[in-house]
C-alpha cells in the first residue's frame, strides 16, 4: 500500500479483539456516529475474519467489514476513512479486499447517499423499498405504564431454550435463512429482547440496547406480523426500560416503520438506501414484517 507520514506504510489487516476498541472510538468520537454499546463486538464474534482496518503505524485510518450471512451472502458495514486520508482510494481498497472473501458472492450494504456513485461503480445496485430511515433524539411522548393487550410479551434469555428455538425459527422464516441471533440478540450483557406471542405462536420481537454516546435507548431490530404488534412491542420495551428511553431513543426504521418514530416525535436524521451486488440472489424475505433494522451495519435486515 501507499506510504503514509514519514515514510510509514499503510497496512490493511484483520481487526483483532483489541482493535475493536480503537474502531469503536474511531466511529463514535472521530466520525461522530452513535451505535449500540456492544454492536461491533457481538458481530465480530459471529465472523471475526470479516473485519478489516487500514493502519498507519498504530493509528487506525480506515475500517470496513463484511459479515457472512450465508456461504455466499455478506453484509458490508462500518466503511469509513479518517478525514485526513479521504480521496486516496482507501475505501475502494477495503471493499475490494472484502470482495476477495467470496468473489462470486452477493454483498449488500446501506449506502451513505454521497457514496452511491462509488458503490455503483463497484457493481452495487439500489434495492427497491430497502431504505433505512435513521431517527433519534429525545422522545416527546413515551407510553404509559398501563398497557393492556391480548398479546403476551416476554423477555428472551438463554434459560428459556424453547422460546429461543421458536424465536430462531421465526427470524429464519422472515429472512429466508437462519441467523446467529443467539450471539447477536440474546447472549449480550447489554440490552434485552422481547418476544410477542399470540396463542403460543410468535408474532413479533424487538431488541433494545444502550447508546454508546449517552446511554439512551437503541431500538432494533423490530419485526412483527402486523403494524399493531409492532407498536405494542415498541411500547412494551420502552416501558420496561423507561429510564433509558427518557435519555434518548434511536431507531432505524423501514418504510413500513416510519409511524413508530413519528409516534415518539423523533427527528429524522438520515436515510440510507440498501444496495446489493447480484440482487436477484438475495433470499426471499418477508420485508413487510420488518419495521426496524438491527442497524445499518452487518445485518441484511
Automatic annotation (TrEMBL):
Pfam families in alphabetical order: Acetyltransf_1
InterPro entries per the UniProt record, alphabetical: Acyl/Acetyltrans_Enzymes (IPR052729), Acyl_CoA_acyltransferase (IPR016181), GNAT_dom (IPR000182)
GO molecular function: acyltransferase activity, transferring groups other than amino-acyl groups
Residues in N-acetyltransferase domain copies: 10-148
Domain of life of the native organism: Eukaryota
Protein name: Uncharacterized protein LOC108865257
Organism of provenance: Galendromus occidentalis (western predatory mite)
Amino acid at each position: 500500500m501507499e506510504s503514509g507520514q514519514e515514510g510509514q506504510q499503510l497496512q490493511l489487516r484483520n481487526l483483532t479483539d483489541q482493535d475493536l476498541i480503537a474502531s469503536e472510538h474511531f466511529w463514535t468520537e472521530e466520525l461522530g456516529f452513535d451505535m449500540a454499546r456492544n454492536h461491533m463486538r457481538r458481530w465480530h464474534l459471529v465472523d471475526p475474519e470479516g473485519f478489516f482496518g487500514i493502519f498507519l503505524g498504530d493509528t487506525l485510518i480506515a475500517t470496513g467489514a463484511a459479515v457472512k450471512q450465508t456461504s455466499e451472502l455478506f453484509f458490508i458495514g462500518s466503511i469509513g476513512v479518517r478525514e485526513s486520508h479521504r480521496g486516496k482510494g482507501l475505501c475502494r481498497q477495503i471493499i475490494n479486499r472484502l470482495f476477495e472473501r467470496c468473489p462470486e458472492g452477493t454483498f449488500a450494504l446501506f449506502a451513505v447517499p454521497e457514496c452511491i456513485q462509488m458503490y455503483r461503480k463497484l457493481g452495487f445496485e439500489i434495492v427497491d423499498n430497502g431504505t433505512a430511515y435513521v431517527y433519534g433524539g429525545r422522545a416527546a411522548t413515551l407510553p404509559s405504564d398501563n398497557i393492556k393487550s391480548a398479546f403476551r410479551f416476554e423477555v428472551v434469555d438463554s434459560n428459556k431454550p424453547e422460546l429461543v428455538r421458536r424465536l430462531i425459527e421465526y427470524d429464519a422464516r422472515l429472512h429466508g435463512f437462519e441467523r446467529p441471533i443467539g450471539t447477536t440478540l440474546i447472549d449480550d450483557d447489554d440490552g434485552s429482547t422481547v418476544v410477542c406471542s399470540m396463542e403460543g405462536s410468535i408474532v413479533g420481537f424487538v431488541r433494545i440496547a444502550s447508546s454508546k454516546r449517552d446511554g439512551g435507548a437503541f431500538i432494533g431490530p423490530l419485526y412483527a406480523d402486523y403494524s399493531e404488534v409492532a407498536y405494542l412491542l415498541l411500547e412494551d420495551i420502552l416501558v420496561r426500560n423507561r429510564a433509558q428511553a427518557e435519555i434518548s431513543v434511536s431507531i432505524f426504521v423501514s418504510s413500513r416503520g416510519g409511524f413508530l418514530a413519528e409516534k415518539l416525535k423523533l427527528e429524522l436524521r438520515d436515510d440510507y438506501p440498501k444496495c446489493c451486488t447480484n440482487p436477484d440472489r438475495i433470499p426471499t424475505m418477508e420485508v413487510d414484517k420488518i419495521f426496524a433494522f438491527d442497524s445499518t451495519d452487518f445485518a441484511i435486515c
